[in-house]
Design a protein that fits this description.
Strand content: 15-25%
Subcellular location: Cytoplasm
CATH class of the largest domain: Alpha Beta
GO cellular component, one term: cytosol
EC number: 6.3.2.1
Function: Catalyzes the condensation of pantoate with beta-alanine in an ATP-dependent reaction via a pantoyl-adenylate intermediate.
CATH architecture of the largest domain: 3-Layer(aba) Sandwich
Radius of gyration: 19 Å
Number of helices: 10
CATH topology of the largest domain: Rossmann fold
Distance between the termini: 54 Å
Pathway: Cofactor biosynthesis; (R)-pantothenate biosynthesis; (R)-pantothenate from (R)-pantoate and beta-alanine: step 1/1
Number of domains: 2
């Protein structure tokens, strides 16, 4: 496995691989890899000739009061995990390499951002879209792998690729979970022991919502009321949002139909956790 820190070198390697007819699977990350990331790498390795993982904590997607400075970083650990997974290249640029000057062109995401995480993080997905366009142009992937834990990001990237005619296939991968159902995340290390015990309630509330829907409940507000009550009773976290929307369009619903997402964010003392469930329902005739 090779580590590349220079944009031009990574781009030249990718272009040479393309000339040789080799397919490239790409997993963009901000590092501190966990089993969720490794599941993406595993799928990419199976489906492509060459795999590339990027490790870059993108400053453009952090707000002024968010955790850029404290975001966990451990490149040696990440490199070891990626190599054990059979990864071929790590693209590990510095912020100065990725953004040497103030951009003369910026990306503004117009849709799918005024709900869920985007509602309380203005500009976040502009930063995500900007870095992904750069990474796609550098790595030249055939397929890009994203975990569905951040389903809003997958929806935004779906729109980005479609609107800009980027020749890449987006491959969503199911959320990797701990034994108690907690979605695996780099931020889980910031949970206090008592908060870690409580955090599985997020997943349990989603399973409760799925059961209500299976029993015939079709009113999103009734489901949301039950979910809020469960989380408030079983955690010390503060609910940022719980929403039920169409997916991937992320539009409000009065009755449940088609493909929907039930998504939430809950703030604990030093970590903000997100989770979701995507469910396909029959459309009303």
């Amino acid at each position: 496995m090779r580590t590349i820190t220079d944009i031009r070198e990574m781009q030249n390697i990718a272009l040479q691989l393309k000339r040789e007819g080799k397919s490239i699977g790409f997993v963009p990350t901000m590092g501190y890899l966990h089993e969720g990331h490794l599941s993406l790498l595993s799928k990419a390795r199976i489906e492509n000739d060459v795999t590339v993982v990027s490790i870059f904590v993108n400053p453009l997607q952090f707000g002024p009061k968010e955790d850029l400075a404290t975001y966990p970083r451990d490149f040696q650990r990440d490199s070891s995990l990626a190599e054990k997974e059979g990864n071929d290249y790590i693209f590990f640029p510095s912020a100065e390499e990725m953004y040497p000057v103030i951009p003369s062109v910026t990306v503004k995401v117009q849709d799918r951002t005024d709900v869920l995480c985007g509602k309380s993080r203005p500009g976040h997905f502009d930063g995500v879209a900007t870095v992904l366009i750069k990474l796609f142009n550098i790595v030249q992937p055939d397929k890009v792998y994203f975990g569905l834990k951040d389903a809003q990001q997958v929806a935004v990237v779906d729109g980005l690729v479609r609107d800009f005619n980027i020749p890449v296939e987006i491959v969503p991968v199911q959320t990797a979970r701990e034994q108690d159902g907690l979605a695996k995340s780099s931020r889980n290390v910031h949970l206090l022991p008592s908060e870690r015990d409580q955090a599985s309630a997020l997943h349990h509330s989603l399973k409760m919502a799925e059961s209500l829907i299976a029993e015939g409940e079709n009113d999103p507000q009734k489901i949301l009321y039950r979910m809020r009550g469960y989380i408030e009773q079983n955690t010390s976290g503060k609910i940022d949002y719980i929403e039920i929307l169409s997916y991937p369009d992320l539009k409000q619903l009065t009755l449940l139909e088609g493909q929907i997402i039930i998504a939430m964010a809950v703030k604990f003392s030093k970590a903000r956790l997100i989770d979701n469930a995507i469910i396909s329902l029959k459309k009303e005739s």
